[in-house]
Amino acid sequence: MHVQSGAAVRTTVDECLSMQDGSMVELRGWVANKSDIGSLTFILLRDGSNYIQLVGKKGVSSDDVISIMKEVSIESAVLARGTLRSDARALNGKEVLVKDIEVIARAEEPWPINKSTVRSASFLYDNRHLSIRGMKSSSIMKIRSELIKAAFDFFYDHGFTFITAPSIVGTAVEGGATLFELEYFGKKVYLTQSAQFYEEAAICSFGKVFTMQPAFRAEKSKTPKHLTEFIMIEAEVAFNTQEDNMRLQEELLTYIYNRVAERRKREFDILGRRLKPVEKPFQRIKYDEVRDTAMKHGINFEWGEDIPTEAERLISRMFEQPFFITDYPLSARSFYHMCRDDDPRITLSSDLIAPEGFGEIATGGQRIHDYNTLLERIKSNNLPLESFRWYLDLRRYGMPPHAGFGIGVERVIRWLCNLKHIRATSLFPRTITRVYP
Amino acid sequence: MHVQSGAAVRTTVDECLSMQDGSMVELRGWVANKSDIGSLTFILLRDGSNYIQLVGKKGVSSDDVISIMKEVSIESAVLARGTLRSDARALNGKEVLVKDIEVIARAEEPWPINKSTVRSASFLYDNRHLSIRGMKSSSIMKIRSELIKAAFDFFYDHGFTFITAPSIVGTAVEGGATLFELEYFGKKVYLTQSAQFYEEAAICSFGKVFTMQPAFRAEKSKTPKHLTEFIMIEAEVAFNTQEDNMRLQEELLTYIYNRVAERRKREFDILGRRLKPVEKPFQRIKYDEVRDTAMKHGINFEWGEDIPTEAERLISRMFEQPFFITDYPLSARSFYHMCRDDDPRITLSSDLIAPEGFGEIATGGQRIHDYNTLLERIKSNNLPLESFRWYLDLRRYGMPPHAGFGIGVERVIRWLCNLKHIRATSLFPRTITRVYP
């Protein structure tokens, strides 16, 4: 870099926004936009932390500076040095009067994302490695990053141990139909669908555990709610009942939602999303009530079947706050769910539903902790006993009642950011038709 | 649960250790050990947060309580209520005089892990779902959990955005020999070896990014340093040089190491590991110096070859602090490495080496940011151009100089905890011979 350093402070845009007028700053970033008005030349600079206006002024900035600013192409990487000053008209209320500028890496012209190509979702996702630079795409990802940090802080502050479960597994947690299979040194193995079984082992050592890692579902469903690879935050707690479990979900969601809403206000503003604070306790409605309501609206399904997506969407639209659907029939749930003492057809489980039509964001429940009940359930579901040997084994050695849940990061972000399609919540989404870039 | 709640406070062991003597507490946990001395019956209770001694005393505790305490089996889950009091002889200096106790889940006898079986590594890893309850295994995992949280805090405090890169990829970052392949709706895809390429795309949007996610290597190497699935923390920063990159690694490692050493003192004590504080800057030695030293000790390898494991171990043993090996020849590095201006055979890259023989824990370097240089390198390495199309594309649109690194979580833990085999650092390790449990 040829430019002399002088007295300028190397800083990020976000940092310099809180510095005093008159400070000499040195910024590095990309040309998000540029324009000329009379004797003034403007560059909107972004550096990942924020945006700031660079100004070149004839008679004040040198001719070299002005000509570089006029000629630099959109999305070029530049280094600029100049004086910070307040200007109410500028984005974020500050601008930098440029003294030196250098193009570090010139971008080819034209920048492929324009008013016409931006209308094609397939073009944008084929060029996701470029389109993620957009103001909206990057805002979604900043919200996502903040959400994950908030979840980490929540769990650590509540005495949870972070664990990782293997991605390569020999056992299917959620059933065999939606498994990705691979060869592993001559063995047939699968990509994990959930960390739950491993968490259940871990709670007997750590009491409370959580995970944040990829989960995989080879579902052929091409819906705006499904990715084949997604991030799940899962938690499992020894001695917790389903009631404790729902309370924990309430606390977690309230904490992360309200913190992200507060700390990422700017990004939500960019997305035009106004968030109402989430308040606990969340309402709880039973499967039977959901079914009655759905049927009144002409959506019919047999008792014992899973709630169809359209019914879930209908109910979800009736709420302004997240809520739980409880008391799912056993026939609609996986084999490991514990049932009510007073009605063995009903599980101690719940789905946590986001309002406004966004639907399910988390699933949780109390797991069977008794050996014989679990053994019977594995047999009656015709599951391969050998694969579940270690999972059963846990029930022989002091497995207390316990409960847990998994929350889909992308689904929460889709709701928070009010997005039509879940792929916009993932930096490089994987769907049944997409593994590129 | 039949036991009446009374005035007891439901608490964790760790919380109750800082409560006042005389407090009535309610604890839930597992019987780690038990013994009788005269009129006293002891249970060592662990609940995942810590250990505490439960005491039953004839004449003070009821006969029922005494008999339950005598008869309960090791690793049973229990609920106990009683009065907290100080006792210098007890582990952690406190004990609970038991008033009520209930066995929540009785463990079968005998507990399979005993003085004889504990000597068999294959038995312990076949029963990892049980053996993780051990004092040492769980201490390693607590250290691991703290280390990952420390890394998250570090990166957030330094303005990094957390991203996740896909696990399912179409392109091999580190070369094709060690890829796990799978079928993806009729396409051939791979499990990721590194998030680096995706991070390189992301820095043009966020400036600084980091990841923490599984990476996969189908290496047939059966060494105490290799897992087929492991957790990598990777970071990439726009406008960083290799010098900045090494400084960032120094800061990160110093921060997480010293914080974990401080906050997990108890766990390091359990492991018998005394940690000396890590101090920056780390020493830097060149590949050529390493080669000279190795050859003086009879370990010969051609200039340009990668440093053999035994040479790395030899050098690592000569240090008490982590250090960098720099100036690797291009022939020993991947195609994307940038080379020195003054010597195109030498890369701007480094390995971060842990002392005491533990060897490499991180690899980093400056990446080629120029389109033509990268294109040439892809061609001269006979790599499929089509797979690298988007990666090359980044160099057309304002890619500045940038650098990054990947640090292997399990390797850092192996060093911190002074472990012979890396499998002990993973809750459910995956090696070429192990996918169970």
From TrEMBL, chains A, B:
InterPro entries: Aa-tRNA-synt_II, aa-tRNA-synth_II, aa-tRNA-synth_II/BPL/LPL, Asn-tRNA-ligase, Asp-tRNA_synthase_2, Asp/Asn-tRNA-synth_IIb, NA-bd_OB-fold, NA-bd_OB_tRNA
Record gene name: asnS
Name used for this protein in its record: Asparagine--tRNA ligase
Keywords from the named record: Aminoacyl-tRNA synthetase, ATP-binding, Cytoplasm, Ligase, Nucleotide-binding, Protein biosynthesis
Molecular function terms from GO: asparagine-tRNA ligase activity; aspartate-tRNA ligase activity; ATP binding; nucleic acid binding
Cellular localisation: Cytoplasm
Predominant place of localization: cytoplasm
Domain of life: Archaea
NCBIfam families: asnS, aspS_nondisc, PRK03932.1, PRK05159.1
